[in-house]
Fold:
Amino acid sequence: MISWLHGEWRRGTEVGQAYPVTYHVPNGGQRSKKTGADLKAQGVKAGVSDLVVMEARGGLHGLYLEFKATPPRHAATARSQRDWLALADERGYGAVLARGLEEARQVLREYMGLPPTEVAGDRHRLEAGTDWKG
Structure:
């Protein structure tokens, strides 16, 4: 998916604008109990969506996209994945389950076709922390 998005970005398409602000969350896969415990101690959470688009569109803060394969590799959506999508939805993010690559591409095309979300009122800056802007 990221390779496809990168290609769309290089071609200058509307959906390609998502490439610089999209990242994959490497939560899946088989791990040893020790590795799993170490990751959990570092803050890794079960169920976090596969792809995050850090671009506010259509009145939403961003997009959380969970991928699932189509048959014959079909896999059930875990309770933790549904819970994470619900949390994202409740907090003003787009939260979508996509079955198969084509459906995921359609979701990204639709999302990036929405108008940018406009901030109403003054934008607040946090005072705590170190200035990273130099």
Q: What stands out?
A: The first strand starts at residue 22 and ends at 24. The chain has a mean pLDDT of 91. The domain at 21-27+44-117 is CATH 3.40.1350.10 (Trna Endonuclease; Chain: A, domain 1). The helical segments are 2-11, 33-41, 79-90, 101-113.
